[in-house]
Amino acid sequence: MRDIRRVLIANRGEIALRIARACHVMGLEPVGIHSEADATLAHLPLMDSTLCIGPAAASRSYLDGARILRAAALLKVDAIHPGYGFLSENADFAQAVEEAGLVLIGPSSTIMRRLGDKIQARQDMAAAGLPCLAGSDGALPDDPVAAARLCEQIGYPLIIKASGGGGGRGMRIVSHVDDLTGAIASAREEAIRAFHNPDLYAERFLRAARHIEIQILSDQHGHAAWIGARDCSVQRRHQKLIEEAPVPGIPRDRIAEIGTLCAQACAKIGYTGAGTVEFLYEDGSFHFIEMNTRLQVEHPVTEMTTGLDIVCEQLSIAMGRPLSFRQDDIRTTGHAIECRINAEHPVNFHPSPGTVTSWHPPGGPGVRVDSHLYTGYVVPPDYDSLVAKLIVHGADRADAIKRMRAALDEIRVAGIETNIALHRRLLDEPGFTAGGVDTGYLTTLLEHFHRNPVR
Ligand code: MV4
């Protein structure tokens, strides 16, 4: 057992507020850090104490591990919750936290480092029993002839990915061997520039897959459980827009099968904390692509369908407590959908920072709003444009869609532009309402909207 009383929340916005709430539920003292641009954030008054750690630029505040560790020492915390984004999957930061004698709310830095290396993650998860796509077992060789021979084995089309990447950055789709050498060269350049890691790998490319992910909770006593699956296929440029649970249109027993494999794999590799195993699903098969070692933006849809509080579970696991439930105790009820509300231009998707002149969130049965917005809040231009998550829970998918439409119609936000109208339009689309769209759906639909602006 590890005594944790004070938790530093190394993040901002809605997720900092979400984590502060969980700390209060658990009887822990949350402490806050913020940049100079963020002194007016809504969660800071809930904190036991707060500290301004640097200027607006994330590189000099939320991404500066040394500053955060100095704040942790000054504020005398026992643990650090990194939230998502920023330093949440940075193994060097996790290691520095451990070396400072503090607890990082997440897996050990060793596990984080292995899973953060996508080539290593693929090898570890394949060895632990997860189905992977045909691919290069290890890094692609430098020699173009050797690389071409290897890729011939995999088959075309294939996709080149950066081992240090993830989330869709630094990828190249290659349909023919003639394009291979050029694709490898440009992918390698990008990988070096963006991730300081030249290693690339290749995988068979799936053209019309769905993005399905499994939520895991794993304690320090070797017990792991999967607590549901999410469908995150509605995305544009690797930014998810809508997520839901359970997954529509895939038999429950197929989901349970892959969920069970994920829990077993996580126990096997010594994973601890909350984690998400990402899969592509096409033609009835799941294929592991990567594992996220952080709390995810879309975790609320799993909370709404299971009744669990994933952030409380994270804190409890970090304190060394065993999971409070067994796999057989997990029951999911109804259907949950999350719409990510971004402060962005509705047509060109450019960020739309500025003063929120009014904010009236929706409510009622089954409606949850995770947001740091308030009337008068100024959305700074320096960070991600996510300003609210609207989550609804209904008896079934059709009921959840009805509740989401009503909630979207009810929201009032003025002063900034948002994607609320896009969400409202999407929820009337036959493709979306039928369920089971693939990851290309939104891009195609937006092209259609662009050609047909008013309906
Ligand atoms: C793929 C893929 C198809 N085949 N891997 C995108 C995010 C990252 N987590 C993995 N991604 C993908 N990996 C194989 N083997 C399709 C995607 C993908 C995608 C790829 C190119 C352009 C847009 C995309 C949108 C969603 C998923």
TrEMBL record:
Entry's Gene Ontology molecular function annotations: ATP binding; biotin carboxylase activity; metal ion binding
Phylogenetic placement of the source organism: Bacteria, Pseudomonadati, Pseudomonadota, Alphaproteobacteria, Acetobacterales
Family matches, as SMART domains: Biotin_carb_C
Domain (Biotin carboxylation) ranges: 3-447
UniProt entry keywords in alphabetical sequence: ATP-binding, Ligase, Nucleotide-binding
Enzyme class: ligase
Top-level taxon of origin: Bacteria
Described purpose of this protein according to its UniProt entry: This protein is a component of the acetyl coenzyme A carboxylase complex; first, biotin carboxylase catalyzes the carboxylation of the carrier protein and then the transcarboxylase transfers the carboxyl group to form malonyl-CoA.
Name of one Pfam family that matches: Biotin_carb_C
EC number in record: 6.3.4.14
Catalyzed reactions: N(6)-biotinyl-L-lysyl-[protein] + hydrogencarbonate + ATP = N(6)-carboxybiotinyl-L-lysyl-[protein] + ADP + phosphate + H(+)
Gene3D superfamilies: ATP-grasp fold, B domain
Keyword ATP-binding: yes
Domain ATP-grasp, chain residue ranges per copy: 122-319
InterPro entries reported for this sequence: ACC_Biotin_Carboxylase (IPR051602), ATP-grasp (IPR011761), BC-like_N (IPR005481), Biotin_carboxylation_dom (IPR011764), Biotin_COase_C (IPR005482), CPAse_ATP-bd (IPR005479), PreATP-grasp_dom_sf (IPR016185), Rudment_hybrid_motif (IPR011054)
Record protein name field: biotin carboxylase
